[in-house]
Amino acid sequence: MENKLTSVERDLVIKYLVNGNSPLIFSVPDQPKNNFAKSLPLVFKAEMVKVFDKGIIILDESEQKLSDYEGLKVKFNFYFNKIGLYFFAVLVRSANSSLYAVRIPPEIYREKDLDSSSAVKERNVKAVIFYQSVRKSNRVNIVCKIKNGYGLFKKSSWNERISQFLSEYEEQILAVSGRKNPPYVIYLDAKKLVFASDSGEMILQSENEYAVELSFPIEGPVKERKISATFYVKNIIKSESGKKLCAICDFTSLKEEDNRYLSDFASSAV
Question: Once rounded to an integer, what is the mean pLDDT over residues 148-176?
């Protein structure tokens, strides 16, 4: 595969991990249909991970419960020199019952970039969130765009998108005084919507419901398809530093024809 690291690149990455330079984001690509999946992805701080020269990673379970994932193929995302990387491994319990281990495989991959045609399309996709301001007693509209590199035409699960976002390089983001930065959209299908913020603040609040209008560019005399819906913020996940946040949301109302459109959009990149 063209996005696979060479053996020399792999050795450099392992040395980087051995020095404890990166947190790891843990997810399960083929999730069993049970309750534990809702807690993913997991964020392991750099100090909670020990990496050895031979590519063995020891994970401390004191902050994250791992017994549910023992024996499963898991995915680890992390960042090296501002490049998103990932690998797959099987999680096993070590001799010490409080520790779990994985072996870094020969294959480490780069996150794929969007092709230019998809990137152009997605710059025109947007989500406008509506909610009632308590202090000002008026309706607030927040325009959210697709984050570069997290295109809706890129096939990956919502867990993988969150893992990628939380593990990538953090740059200093300055908000305009007196105004919060709107979140980005990093995942969308007929059931779920994921927003992300790299400013240290998330406008959305956990366990609250919001209205949203989604806009998609289309060909023909009508240049835009709009979908109105409501969604519920199920959970908010933070990065190790707290600067990056992801809001995991489930649609609570969606018309049947809009559900079909989003299903087609997610499966075949309408």
Answer: 70
